[in-house]
Write a structure and sequence with these properties.
Blueprint (H helix, E strand, L loop, with lengths): L4 E3 L4 H11 L3 E4 L5 H6 L7 E4 L9 E4 L2 E5 L4 H6 L1 H6 L1 H9 L3 H4 L4 H5 L12 H7 L26 H8 L3 E6 L2 E6 L20 E7 L5 E7 L10 E7 L4 E7 L6 E6 L5 H11 L10 H24 L1
Parallel strand pairs: 1-3, 2-3
Antiparallel strand pairs: 4-5, 5-8, 6-7, 6-8, 9-10, 10-11, 11-12
Helix pairs in contact: 5-9, 10-11
């Protein structure tokens, strides 16, 4: 599907002005690896496209004084190839390496990956497929095709980098007309399969991600059908700082990333599994069976827990 109009502003100010002019029938465009699929499947109507790739300020990558600053248009490939990130923020490096394929990562941006739209096997299909099966709450229907309910959509957050960045307590910066916002990455999301972004990003631009937390230990593992290409069925990222404060983020198994945190010394594996089971709103909307995915949450948490013992031995 062709856009109604295509604009390439040179500054954030001009991009915001264009958004105000064409609101609400516009979309921001960065790497476009996800948006183009949505357009092909007719999940997005023809709109004015505001291409952000001409804004040089969104492409910066800087590491100094124990702080990493990433412009929203930094590609996943740039993150993987940066030695400072690999050495100082290996959790982010690992998560970026797990996303998509090498070819896609050369175009896909960190901002786009953070804001990837929630997915569901009943929604993310062609127009003809959705007509044949019946539409859903998130599209044009009045029921959830997964649960049969009429009130809630359970489409899943599938951002690899959000999983790591939340574990790292990263922050994001958003530019709006007349103001700038700063917030933790975890506050970008809400547990709603339709309105899955909590912030006013429809009118604003995510400009930068900042990390200052260092990990004394970290862990990341992703479950998917194939070793590349596929979106996650489950991902777990863990960061433990030098004071023993652990941040465990689970993703792919709920409408938004799930964060469990606390002193590692006060945690038990049993309690951790119980919390994860309660907080993750996992339903049968993935290619992998529901029962298997729920079981793998426990398996991954156990694998991380056992890795702590291995670290102590070494």
């Amino acid at each position: 599907m062709k856009p109604a109009k295509y604009i390439i502003p040179a500054t954030i100010k001009r991009a915001l002005a264009a958004a105000a002019k064409y609101s609400p029938d516009f979309m921001y465009f960065g790497g476009g690896t996800d948006i183009q699929i949505y357009l092909k499947q007719q999940l997005l109507p023809p709109q004015t496209v505001i291409d952000l790739t001409g804004i040089k300020a969104l492409g910066k990558l800087k590491h100094s004084r124990g702080k990493l600053e990433l412009g929203a248009l930094v590609t996943l490939d740039q993150i993987i190839r940066n030695n400072q990130i690999r050495l100082n923020y290996p959790l982010l490096h690992r998560a970026a390496s797990a996303a998509a394929t090498p070819v896609i990562r050369k175009t896909a941006t960190i901002g786009g990956n953070l804001l990837v739209k929630n997915r569901c096997t009943f929604y993310n299909q062609s127009k003809d497929w959705r007509i044949a099966v019946g539409s859903c709450l998130r599209d044009e229907g009045d029921i959830c095709q997964v649960t049969g309910g009429k009130k809630a959509c359970f489409s899943r957050n599938v951002s690899d980098t959000a999983t790591a960045l939340i574990a790292l307590d990263a922050r994001v910066f958003i530019s709006l007309r007349g103001e700038n916002l700063e917030m933790p990455v975890k506050d970008l999301y809400r547990a709603d399969g339709i309105r899955f972004h909590r912030h006013p990003l429809n009118d604003g631009i995510l400009t930068q991600i900042e990390i200052s937390r260092k990990s004394s230990s970290w862990w990341f593992k992703k479950l998917r059908l194939r070793k590349s290409m596929d979106f996650m069925s489950l991902a777990v990222a863990v960061s433990v700082d030098e004071k023993g404060w652990a941040r465990i983020c689970l993703n792919g198994v709920s409408m938004s990333p799930v964060l469990i945190e606390g002193l590692l010394a006060d945690m038990t594996l049993k309690d951790l599994m119980a919390k994860a089971g309660k907080m993750c709103k996992t339903v049968d909307n993935d290619l992998m069976p529901l029962k298997y995915r729920r079981q793998m949450i426990k398996v991954y948490l156990k694998l991380w827990w056992e890795s702590l013992g291995e670290r102590k031995k070494s």
